[in-house]
From TrEMBL:
Residues 410-722 form the EcxA zinc-binding domain. The lineage of its organism: Bacteria, Pseudomonadati, Pseudomonadota, Betaproteobacteria, Burkholderiales. It comes from Pseudoduganella rivuli. This is DUF5117 domain-containing protein. Residues 94-283 form the DUF5117 domain. Keywords: Signal. The keyword Signal applies.
Amino acid sequence: MTPTRSASYLLATLLLTAIPANSAFSATSAAPAKTLQEQTQGLASQPGFIDLWRDTAQGRVLLGVSALDQPFLLMSSLPYALGSNDVGLDRRQSGEVKLVRFQKHGNRLFLVQDNTRFIAGSKDHDERAAVAESFAGAVLWAGDILATDGGRHLVDFSTFLLADQHGVAARLAETKQGGYAVDAKRSAVLAADARAFPDNIELEALLTFQGPGQGEWVKQVAADPASLTMRQHISMVRLPDDGYRPRTYHPQSGGFDTGYVDFATPLASSLDVRWQVRHRLEKTDPGAALSPVKKPIVYYVDRGAPEPVRTALLEGARWWGSAFEKAGFKDAYRVELLPEGADPMDVRYNIITWTHRATRGWSYGNALANPLTGEIIRGAVTLGSQRVRQDILIAESLLAPYGKSGGREKLAEQMALARLRQLSAHEVGHTLGFAHNFAASRQGNGSVMDYPHPVLKLNAQGEVDLADAYGVGVGPWDDYIVKHVYGQFAGDEQAALAQLRREAQAAGLTYVGDTDARSPGAAHPHGLLWDFGPDILKTWDSLSAVRKRALDQFSFNVLPDGRQAGEIEARLVPVYLLQRYQAEGLARLVAGGEFEYAAVGDIRAGAARGGVRPVSAATQREALNKLASTLQAEYLALPAHVLDVLTPPSQGYERNREYFETRMGGVFDALSAAEAGAAQSASFLLDAGRLNRLAWQHARDAKQPGVAEVLDLLLQRTWRRDAIPATLAGGETVQLAANWVVLDTVLQTLNGGKLHAGVAAEVRTALADLASWLGRNPGKGVTAASRKEAATLVKAYLQDPRSVTLRPLPPIPPGAPI
């Protein structure tokens, strides 16, 4: 581990490695014609971290810069935004945090960004210079000095404010919305909104981006998609004082890290230096087990959030208070409503923003943190407003509460608000420095930092029960992470943290982060998004019963009065695909392997285990069998009473991404639904990484399932299966739809080039065997046509893959976020 260094030492290192100031431009620069007083006469002034003058008549902001070569933090944000979840330019979105400084060259000031990724934490000047000369910094802006008075240099900062500092144009291009650029004639510095405070200044501009206006997503949200007008906010923030003590990051902490490459570390040490990201929190009595703090952490909820949302956000965010108290901090954490008239863009406020978009989308938590030490200066949470409505839709689709007595429709809103409380706590957790833990659901309400699926069950009467859908309060992992990230210890800090980790392991707390959870081919069986329960196999069975009950009662009772009848199709999606996340969980068991994040010292001390431990062969086969059942008509075919109520959207309405695709001329397409359901399972199971692991696990232990066994089972349950029960209306056609999805997925995986050669050979052998079997078993009717076509396709592909145009896999309506 890298020894802890003071903030002042790190700052001094960067000061000495910064781009050197000089007077190279002085020969071509003229002296200012007017004094500072003359330049600012009649302008409203405001002293602060950097003095500023507001020229509202000319639309300018003038800065009086006195501290040269003194680093500070610069961050952009968007107080007024685009409103498209797909593009991602959201209301009050925070941008990149940069460490910058002003430098004087001749009669000009330069705003220079330091390169904080590479340093030399050494007292030797030449050693520091070698690093400084090796990696480029950046000049972000330069402007003429209008006047100088007593070491204070006056500049017009307007050109910086009118440039696209947030990267709006780049984001629009990245999301294929077209080439946009700032139109200076339709942009303005909002001088009246400029404010200076002792430790920060806040500046704003109205920017209009001119572009082609042809992008699908800008056309969905903008008044004029060719002219996108937003506001850009710039915060310039003093670096915190030297009182903060950085904490070395540990991979088992569950927190976020920041750091740099330090070329001055000893040869036997890692160049990689990482600090834990966290707020400054100091006890007034460091020796007390429970002590008040010098300055509490306070978050403020957006006044734009309506009731009952506002109360839910306040309640959920406040859950962290109990964890801080368990960590020894009394009254150290509060959540309040933003004071009336307060500026939510002011970085002095930790803010929870209620953000509207055209469609539902993700929420997130960001932090303005010192890149040198990890100290958080400001937390900023963005909560998408449409997620709560999606949760109500899911609950109503499961309950079918309308047209009945008993008031069960109220349960849907109650579930959605329970989810919102958890979401508020989750996103605030990110801004406190905490990462996702996608293994916490193994312990029930283990952590608000997991992605929770509602805990669904059937009650004694066989009805869907939402009473315990979402937990209340933070969980045991959250208590641990607050202690590990913020705890203060009287003795050896590293020894105390190691003891915390041993206690967490003894309590069965498991940690799996984003890297090992989000990939379709991820290996860790516990790193799952949107799962619940300690045993995914048992969860699958219980959720199967809920899905069956919800489909059995599916009717127009899933919709309240006043909704157009065609919306019933959208209500079917979350019921039909209810087990989509648990299907991924089953796939994760196949070729799955457990491992832990650890430091070598913890492994030696017995506080962590190294290596990867495969899931047992019996568990893999049980999961494989359950997952294969989702590729059969008995699972995929909709009941007749459901098909009979599915109504196309009414005039003036249309299907959107929340519906199943239709290729049936505007009416509901049961085959597209079946294809989507089959693709959900097949794409996870047949991921190239999973097949490669299957082959390797089987090579090391012949008792483990291998690639041939998995493919044989899938093809046996689909293409080679027995006749479909005659009682299943349309079952044969639905099965053929699933069969084609399986074959297309196998071919896409084989064609992707990510399989090891030996694994690809096994896949080709399985395909050749399938083609041979199909030739010997032609079938009858529609089955005969598909079998003949499939055999022809497989033979052609195996002979020359370039001669075959592979079908894309079917689209699946979005599930997350919920």
